[in-house]
Structures are given as structure tokens and as C-alpha cells.
Amino acid sequence: MKMLKSALVAGFALLAAGASQAQEVVKIGLIAPMTGPQAASGRQMVAGAQLYMALNGNKVGGKTIQLIVRDDQGTADITRRIAQELIVNEKVAVISGFGLTPLAMAVGPVITQSKVPAVIMVAGTSSIVGTSPYFARASFTLPQNTFPVAEWAAKNGMKNVVTLVSDYGPGIDAMNTFKKTFEAAGGKILDQLKAPLESPDFAPFLQRAKDLKPDAVFLFVPAPQAGALMKQVVDRGLTQAGIKIIGTGDVTDDDQLNGMGDGVIGMITSYNYSSAHDSPENKNFVAEFRKANPQMRPNVMGVSGYDGIHLIYEALKKTNGNTDGTALINAMKGASWVSPRGPMSIDPETRDVVQNIYVRRVEKRDGELHNIEFDLFKNVKDPK
Ligand code: PHB
To answer: What is the pLDDT of residues 64-78, one digit of tens each?
Structure first.
């Protein structure tokens, strides 16, 4: 009887220990621009992250996951301050988000010093992940997303191209990658135009591009500016002047595409994600995303928010709930899974994203505009 009693007591103690471990909360910080000019990216990231948790629950590695969303208004000083506050006061295990390259760059020194991993869900400048051993990227890089459309242009009879990009990290990456790839294939760059990131007026650049009479104009702007850019491209009649419009998929952003009108039909872009991607994983993702967010169509930021949380969950599973930052970033290295975008992984050497890049054409299907994929580059690493 005494033995039975002590066995029972021991059993209860074990149960209680298990329960308290499951009640132990692991906090994930998500820093996103929810207001200001980049708010569209923030809304998508948060919707994607929340959807992942709604579909997969909040228990991982014996712990309870809590997502803490903070608005950095797209301003680097605020991103840095929020990162510090989340790490020091909230004791988050991981931070994530970063809707613009300078916002990710701003947290590099913070995560290196505190040894807390940061999962990038948007920022696409190639060099970011190299600035701290605690960065991992779940989004894309601009070189990765640019070279396929440059090859497509060269193979499809385009000889002279003007490039127009936003004048900051990802734009410069896109500009340089396009030039390198296109010239290696025998093409010529007539001019490299750069529009300011803040409140850009694209009109003078588009006029200059039109006057140069190139075979094509290559475009990159951060996705939240795509609607404004494409309206001006259409209004200025570049297509009617016989100029092909090409770019990275940022400029035919899935969430804004229908608002751009039929003038963008036929545009060719290369990108890592289309909401029209034909796979069971994506069909399910799009349906669930739209159910939870009826006003939005998921875009690259939405799928990166979703995959970014998946990466953090996988790391926590691998460490059995251990939240040591070095253990977590090591657990992210080499992770691979099937995303709604297709197969993807985290390069164990660089911590950067490896994924399929698709060449797509804007087409109208069932009364809606979509980026329809027609060519594929498999398992692409950032081509540094
Ligand atoms: C970036 O700032 O790195 C960035 C933002 C939005 C994009 C692509 C890149 O669509």
C-alpha cells in the first residue's frame, strides 16, 4: 500500500512536470510594418504567420507558443528599438519579420550580441544574412529572383534593355544581377535608372526609358509600391510603343494584381511564389488564407510569414523545446520542407533560402489576373 501510494505520488509529480513544461511559454516576436508605406507587407506577413499557427496549433517541443506582433512603421530605428525591447523585456526566443532591407540590417548587431535568432520574412538584399550568424531567411533574395527573367529576355529575342529599380539594397542587387546575366547572354543594357525609395515619382524615369526605345524595360520596386508603378507604366503607353515590360514578381504583386487592370496582361516576371502555383499545398494555403482574410489574396509576404513560423516550429521540435539561441539557429540550418511555393530549404552554410524560381506571365483566368508559371529553375541558391 505504501509503495502504491508513493508510486502514485511520483506519477502525479511526473504529470505535473509535463503539464508545467507544456504551459511554459515560448515567445516569438514578429516585427512588421503595420502602418506607413510598407503596411501592405506587414499585413501579409502577420496574416501568414497567424494562419500557420491557426492550422498547426500552438504547442511545439513541449512548449506553448505565443506570437507577439509589433508595428515598426517601416522605420529602422523603431525596428531596432522593438527588437531590443522584445529580447530584453519579453525574453523572446526568436524575432522575425522585417518588411524592408534597412529594417533587417538594423537588427543585425542586436541579434549578434544577444545570440537570439532572427527569421527574415521579406527583406531580400543578398548581403543581409551574412551580417550576423543569427540570421536565417525564409523569403527570397533579389539575385535569386532576377536572373531567370534576364535569361528569359535574352532567349526571347530581347537585345536592348533599360532597367529601372528602387535606389536601395534590393534594387541595386536586381540591377546588377540583371546586367550581369543579360550581358553574359549577349544582351545590352541601354541605361540603369534608379528611383528614390521614399515617395517616388516614376514618370520621368519611365519617359526616359521610353525615349531610349529598348526592346524591354526591367522593373523592380518593393511590392507595396507595385500598384503605383504599374499604373504609370500603363498610362505612359510603353507596351503600345512596342516595349516589353518585365521584372521580378514584386511588381506584379498577387495582392494588387487585379487592381492594376488588363494593361499588365502579358507581363513576364520571375519569382519564388505565385498564388496561382499549381500544387495541393498551395491550393489549401490559398483557400485557408482567403477564409481567414477575405479582403486579401496571399502574396510572397504572406507565404513567407507562414514558412517563417514553420521554420521556427521545426527548430523548436528539433531542440525539444530548448530555446537557447545558438541551438535554435543551428537547428534551422538544413531544414527542408514543402511550402505552398514548392520545395524549399535553408542552406546549412549560409542560412539563406534555397527554392524553386518560376518564370510567369500575367494572364486572365475566370475574370481575375494571375501570375501563371510556365518555366522553372529548381533549387536555386542565392547566386552570390
Ligand atoms: C526589401 O526591402 O528587401 C524588399 C522589400 C519588398 C520587396 C522586395 C524586397 O518586395
So the answer is: 999 999 999 999 999
